[in-house]
Amino acid sequence: MSGSLTCNGPHPKACYKKVSNDKDLWDPRFSWDRAKPSDPFLRISGRQPKGPSGDNKIWLIQDHLQRYPRTNETLYVTPEEFCLWMVLQETLDLSLWKVQVGWQLIENSAIISFFGPQKVASEAKTAISKLMIFLNSTVRMNLWPGLIQERRRMSGFFQLGDDLSLFLWKGEACTFRASVTISLSSSPMDRHSMGITAPKVRVLRQHIVNERGIPQVLLQVTLLSSWSGHSSRKRQASKAESQELIANAVTLALQAASQEKSASVVIHPSDLAALAKGITLGVKAFKSKQPPGSSLRNLTIAANDNDFVAECEAECCRWWPRGKDHHVLLPYVLSSWEAVKTKVVVGSLIDQKTDVVVLPWFLKPHNRNGVWETSAQVQAALKIILDAQALFHGNIITLPASSLPGLHCQILYIICLDIRLIQQHLEDKQVIQQVVWSCLNNFLGSFLESISFPMLDLKNPGNSNPLCIMLEEINNFLKEKPNTWMKLVQIVQPPRAATTQKMTENFKTPPEAIVGLCQKEDCAFIRYLNDFPAVFQEFEGHLRKIGCVLQTCVSSGVLKFIAEGGNIYPSNWEKAVEYAFQKNKKRYVVYYESNSDILNVLKNQQSLVKSFANIQEYEGPCFVGPTEEVKMFIQCVQEMAFNEKLVCVEHPILHLPRYTVVKKTINKLLLPHSPVTIALGEDPLGMITFQGPQQNVLEVERQFYSLLSGFKDWPVLLSPFQVQFIQSQGEEFFNENFFLAQDILAVLSTSDGVRILGLDCGELVQAEELLKNLVCERRIDIAEEVQWAASGLEWKALLIAPRSKNKVTFYSVKSQQNILTSVVIVGTKVEVAEAETNIREYLMTYSAAEDRVVFPRPELAEARENLLQIMNWGDLKVNVWIEANHSTLTLILRGPRRYVKEARGVVQTDLDSLVLRTIPIRHREVQQYLSRIGATVLLTFAKELQCLVKMQVPEETTNALLSDVSAYREESELASAHELLRVLRRYRKEHFTLGDTSIGLVQVLGREVNLNKFQEVFDDFINGYYSETFNSDKIVTLSEDCLQEVLDRAYYFPLNLQRHGKLLQIQGFQEDVRKAATAVQALIQEAQDTDRAEALKSVVQWQYDFGNTELSPFDKTTNLKLEEAYRKEEETAEIMLDSRRAQVSLKKRKGLVPDTGKIFNIKRNICIWEMSIPQHWEPMDDNTVKTVTLSPNLKEYQEVARKFMCSMVKNTINKIERIQNPYLWTSYIYKRNWMEKKNPPGVQNEKVLFHGTPPQNCLSITEHGLKSTCRKNGMYGQGIYFAKEAYMSSQYCGHQRYKLMFQVRVLTGEYSKGDVSITFPPEKPGGGRYDSLVDSVGMPKIFVTFFDDHSYPEYLITYK
């Protein structure tokens, strides 16, 4: 393996504190003088292997990238961009880069050079070029189309002071890696707060992980108001009041963010685009109150609304100057363009396709190493690589992923960790912090995009969640070292770990923590709290008991409730604050006075207010004070103005009909002698007016409302249907003014039953009699035999006609089984009588009837329910049932009597028109095709032509309709019937050769015109029928999946494929068969080419080299191409080498790759020597495998037969064939030579044994040998079984008449007793392994081998 390594590792002092006698933990080369405490992982040098002189030198191992060619990349920039670069160096950590950076300003241009490995230098140039474009466009506040996305744009930069900057961005808040995000939104007020009319703003705190995987604090600022909505009765929240609330809430949220020690905060208004002024005022207020030494440095306002951003920019320009310091702007812009997404996934670490994968390598005692979640191949490769290194805790080794098998990344970071040191002396957080920072430092300087970390769950007891620690450290790194080329940092959890969602929920604070509330309050009340300290202390004392601090803002009319202590459940705290504040506020009242009479009294009696010590007067005029004192004050003022003026009192009318009854009653009793007049507004939402002297008005009011509360409730005894009818007619006829229109002083109520409300009992009785005489009810029972007639459209039309006059209503009465049993008619007397007559006449005209139609036709009886598929009886308005025996069909018609009579004639005519036609089949292949998958064709034709089809075969015992036969392919997979008929017309003039004898019949039942069309279509299909048969040895090797792929292609008609050994027959439509035959021929040719190439590679092998490298073999396809050109004596050939086109000169044995200009040498090697082939074999004639039938007169035949007949005396040999397979024979001979050298002298390494198998396996064994992959479980091991005697193998040859058995040469070598659980030869006591297993070591009769080249099938014996 080529390539160099880089070792970067942590050496914390605690790791090397000597606590045991294990000296392997101590690194003698380590020196604290060379260590930097600030580095998470300290860079150390590796250990040089001892040289010839024996001294141990210290040397620095270079990164694996250093083996790549170094290059110099130059980036040309403008002078403006060069100035930005000079400022940006303070933010970019160039010491971590894998390239050397230089720059120079030359007159009107500048250059930045990158020197280092070619790939890294190119990536660095690209990344810095994009970064310069982004920064230059942002500084100019001018987008360059195509380079910067519209959704991320900076609109303003303002200096709020020496230590605080404000940035305006158009885009999402998740773009910024801020520690705190303030989200502004609005929401309706909670149910428990709906009684409070004043709006408020809630500020909540929550720790979350956003969609980019950034842990942060979310401060949710939510405007809550009961004013929201469109109702005219609800007060709309004014824009100015909302601005004042938002300003105070933003100030409160920024103070909370400052307490979080956050350096950057993002303010994101989601649906408050009109409140830009409130946000800027809140920021201004916070800046004025910002304590010295605050950690907050950057404020960002990010929104997607262009109008909001423009308005916010205008507001910022009013208060602060625009920023010009690039040393502040550029680092911020760089961090804003950083778009790294942190993801937590579940899966295998080695399957990740990121650029870098971090693997922890755990050091065990005596340097026995291990890695989590890797395959055995990766483990083995890593062990070989790392065994050559002296590894200590904290080493980081970088490897190219191409050095290891099965990886999908580019680079592998291997971190060496000593579990014992970590468990005894280090905390998980410290180790994780060191791992994350060191790997990201190395990753940052490589200019790659994605990296995958494993879940570093070290399982130390008492330590915190490792995922939380990793996400926090990744976030801290990216905040300290922002860049634009990193895209993804991924944390991979093994599949056995908890789900990602459950792990990331640890960042959330359940539930959300409350920060505080800002509530809009009357300015007069807030001034009152400031003017009376005792009252303020009273409110504050109650609120502090529940963890709340009260603050006032008189200028904006806002109260702030700030939470004290730790995480507080917001809902409970808010309810407690609301309850405590409202409980105290109920003791005080804010009273606004607008009555001119009372204002005149107050103007003349100014000393009256001063007589109440706890009441304060403000502009309005407004009076604030304790509730009882204010009441006494107002009562005193009102009494002074009471007798000074005539009054006109108005009250809203709550229920106009009742008010009308009371007014008419009072007019009869009081008003003829009273100076008070009563007027009622005609509008139901109008007013009632009492006008006159105040004292008299008060008396009339008292009498009026006394009568209004004394209404009697008079229930009326009516049936539920009468009540329902009256309620349905309420708005038009039976409304509340129904009795008043009849000069009866009563009110009709239908809201809860039917009730009469009034003041006089006589009026109530008169109203009840009127109502009962007006509403009539009749019931009609529906007999069971005509219940079906009460559900059709005619029945509905019968009920709808009288209902249109709105004087009658029908109600259906149903049983528990939801069956209509009666109809109730409710309405006026005349309309009810007329409707009753019509319904009874309708039910008399309908009654259930049944009729039977008998047809003594066997073909119809056999069709049974299938007749319904071709008969159009859906519009007969009767139900049709079919009963049939072997010769008679009976149709049962059920329905209304008049429809049954009409349907009988239609059914009789339709069935008499059906004819049975028989079509003979005289070709067996056609009969086989149609009786199998071709049945779908007949079904398609029959369905399209409305016929029933049946197929009869003489040798079959069951003849059924093809509609009952399950097809091999769904109808939806075939082409449409119209397309099939169009295709068949092409073969109308062709004639299919038929025999004279009918071997099957197709019977079709249908109308004569449809039968003629079916006959025509069937003849067209017979003319287009075609079959083709393939005979090839490769047919056996074709898998079922390959044949299924042939069948799955698009055909007009289904195909039938039959395979019998080497034969494959395709049956179907001519165009379909030819299309499938082309595909099958391609499969056979592909299999033949593959076998030729595979066989040739074992005989002749072409190899190449590039001059100073070892010979490498060509692939088998290229090997075949070169050998064919060589045998044809061609001078040149064109091949593919490493995915590039290459030209080869066979005469000069040279090759050229035109794309790269490289020249390579080629060589032809012969792998099989003719001397290894037995001399008695016949010539192969260019065949890879050949079977030769032996003559019984040959000695070779007699020797094989004698050994076989020793245990098979009752059987007769039919023939013996010699198997000539040079490739299997050569492999076997090589293995035999190897075994003779391996085993001691005297061991019989080779035996002649027997192997029985079914006939279908013989061809595969002849061509490929006995494969260990096909072995099965057995009594003596999981391998290939052979028997010493032929009779033991005969039981595995099948049950056919002629059986097949192989005589096999087997390398048994040294053997041991077998067992069912053995899958590999066991080890010998003296070292090495046995070659085979046996049933008995003393007298073995059964032998078991485990390798392909330990046997050669020499003869194939056919016997019976």
From TrEMBL:
Chief site of localization: nucleus
Ranges where the PARP catalytic domain occurs: 1173-1360
Matching Gene3D superfamilies: 3.30.720.50, 3.90.228.10, Leucine Aminopeptidase, subunit E, domain 1 (3.40.220.10)
One BP term from GO: negative regulation of gene expression
Enzyme Commission no: 2.4.2.-
Domain of life, source organism: Eukaryota
Keyword Glycosyltransferase: yes
InterPro entries (UniProt xref): Macro_dom-like, Mono-ARTD/PARP, PARP14_WWE, Poly(ADP-ribose)pol_cat_dom, WWE_dom, WWE_dom_sf
Segments forming a coiled coil: none
WWE domain residues: 1088-1164
GO cellular component term, pick one: nucleus
Locations listed in the record: Nucleus
GO MF, one annotated term: NAD+ poly-ADP-ribosyltransferase activity
Alphabetical UniProt keywords: Glycosyltransferase, NAD, Nucleotidyltransferase, Nucleus, Transferase
Pfam family, one: PARP
Family statement: Belongs to the ARTD/PARP family.
Protein's name in the database: Poly [ADP-ribose] polymerase
